[in-house]
């Protein structure tokens, strides 16, 4: 049992307003349903989708109602389990992905679906694991759109990762290198050394003409692009792709969806594919294991206490985080 009836939470009560619209409240500790667990929270990580929902970019789907406690990616300790939960118990240290519809991460306690809750070993910290659910799973699922074996036994390919210094990009670089791919990455000048240190073979400063062209300095054509930013036109990607190259667009707008459908209809060899991450217990387990083995790390941009969650929110909204923005409880 929580032992406490109320908790500190951070929520918003309407669309827009950014960090200034987050309000600190004292509300009831939630009660887990039969397939849920109650967590005493240790850390949460912010994803751009969290503030895009606040902006109204996913309306009318999300949020389902106001007021809404945002954030889905969390780590904590189980203090209560629902009546049907069998594989988890009170006292387990875990990482969870809360449902997009429920949110709940910016609070001292949260209910998580048991089906998306994974035990983490002591060597994997709360902050490290809270970074994983959306960002690392997106990188993993993007790389899996072609044959990719993360033990390095598969066929190596030429991979471009745009915005490689961001939450998704830094995981994508590391995962691509585990698969033995040749990685070209784009990021700002200040992060070039970091991105190289995580394994990228060549790094382009996106603010230079060479970076904007996306051309591989070693003349490679990309079999796969993990595209983690916006405002890069197909005409820039196209000449850099191999004959069957594909661009996996993690930030798809209407243009991507229309062009992607057209390419399928016309049997184009070069493909453009929108990707929305699919929450997966198996993927989360796999990622936690990689962190445990020291093969994958979470780069933390900054840590903020829950009492200053609005600073974390503003940091993520600014669009210049290097790795994950973490809120600690
Ligand atoms: N489809 C999905 O399921 C899914 C899942 C996860 C994320 N996403 C989306 O993917 C995008 C990336 O997410 P994220 O968490 O990685 O974001 P993020 O952490 O906020 O990314 C920030 C980083 O991007 C870099 N950057 C910005 N514009 C760039 C450009 N034109 N070229 C190269 N680097 C650039 C910034 O570098 P500087 O500071 O140097 O500018 C900064 O380091 C977001 O739009 C997010 O919503 C989608």
UniProtKB/TrEMBL annotation:
Signal peptide: none annotated. One of its GO terms (molecular function) is oxidoreductase activity. It holds the Pfam family ADH_N. Residues 17-327 form the Enoyl reductase (ER) domain. It comes from the Eukaryota. This is Chloroplast envelope quinone oxidoreductase homolog. It comes from Phoenix dactylifera.
